[in-house]
Amino acid sequence: AMKLQSPQFQALFTPGLRSVAELFEKKNYELRIAGGAVRDLLSGMTPQDIDFATTATPAEMKEMFTSAGVRLINNKGEKHGTITARLHEQNFEITTLRIDVVTDGRHAEVEFTTDWEKDAERRDLTVNSMFLGLDGMLYDFFNGYEDLKTKKIRFVGKASERIQEDYLRILRYFRFYGRIAEKPGDHEPSTLQAIKENAKGLAGISGERIWVELKKILLGNHVNHLVRLMYELDIAQYIGLPLDGNLEEFDRVTKSIQNLCPKPMTVLTSLFKVKDDVTNLDLRLKISKEEKNLGLFLVKHRQELTKATGPEPLRPYQDFIMDSREANTNAKICELLKYQGEEHLLREMQQWTVPSFPVSGHDLRKLGVSSGKEIGTALQQLRDEWKKSGYHMDKEELLSCLKKL
């Protein structure tokens, strides 16, 4: 038996968790850490959020917390068996062990159980199916720890059964593969077969849920391998990707963009050939307005808007920003530079502040230009001069220039 005593594990024992543990102990209900947090702790990481599992039913938990005067946060989780308690400024999400009774590939009806193995059995991947006692004892019914150490991603039990319970698990398989597996191509053939046979099921999953997973895949490892696999296994068409995605461009961009912290949309756009590809993705996945605009921007400008030869390679990008009438053009240009793999220019761009035009209509009135129309024309001419100077001319220089004009 394995007992975990890492600093990351010890750090979980906040005053809040100690109080929660005490309450459960008093009532003889078992309480363990479940799922992803166990995986993270075993990998030596500090988990972002922690799910707890227990033998107590929601009703028993409510009774126990209420009589101890603990505040319950009314999340909608209760029908799935989740109670959220707040102690010492910290939320604790605790779910009763459960078995899926009926599943339709999207939602499950559950019944409660006190059998830990039965609960582990309905989880998706072996590395996500472990429990950790608060004493550090590991409960691992499906060899998840071994798989984690050898960096294998496997479904719990039969892949096809797990997938048919919730088709989104196909994408979760890819996401965790990109997070844990060491090298591309290390899949069990039977798993890939099961994914291919069930790919159609993704058509029934909401776009929002798919997009959450897809974004994580796009920022993980082996993204090029995994997206190619989506095409080979007939998944792409059901999740809004173009049938004839540009895999060569995707290959090129994913290689050069890895360390540049791109947005998911920037990576994905390399698959797209035309702006309809962005529109179709949006129809299927309901991406945000900002994401859609970024995709359209990149498809439109990735070929023409490139660095200048000569001493000022950034100038075309800077001019574009200065001429733009839109907000956040700066951020879009930075994503374009990432897309183009221009690491040095990106760093320069991130340090560049947009200069503000030093002359105002007020300055011109002082010089005796009175009609609005003339002021407008003069300002435009000065702006052009200023741009030609690389935005270096100051107010004095510009105004003396006006006299010449």
From TrEMBL:
- Where the record annotates domain Poly A polymerase head, the positions are 31-154
Q: Which keywords does this Swiss-Prot/TrEMBL entry list? A: Magnesium, Metal-binding, Nucleotide-binding, Nucleotidyltransferase, RNA-binding, Transferase, tRNA processing
Gene Ontology terms, MF aspect: metal ion binding; nucleotide binding; nucleotidyltransferase activity; tRNA binding
As for family, the record states: Belongs to the tRNA nucleotidyltransferase/poly(A) polymerase family.
For whether the record's keyword set contains Transmembrane helix, the answer is: no
Pfam families per the UniProt record, alphabetical: PolyA_pol, PolyA_pol_RNAbd
For the tRNA nucleotidyltransferase/poly(A) polymerase RNA and SrmB- binding domain, which residue ranges apply?
188-239
| Required co-factors | Mg(2+)
Q: Which GO terms describe its biological process?
A: mitochondrial tRNA 3'-end processing; tRNA 3'-terminal CCA addition
User: What superkingdom does the record give?
Assistant: Eukaryota
Identify this protein by name. Answer: TRNT1 nucleotidyltransferase
InterPro entries in UniProt: Bact_CCA-adding_enz_type3_sf (IPR050264), NT_sf (IPR043519), PolA_pol_head_dom (IPR002646), PolyA_RNA-bd (IPR032828)
Q: Which GO terms describe its cellular component?
A: mitochondrion
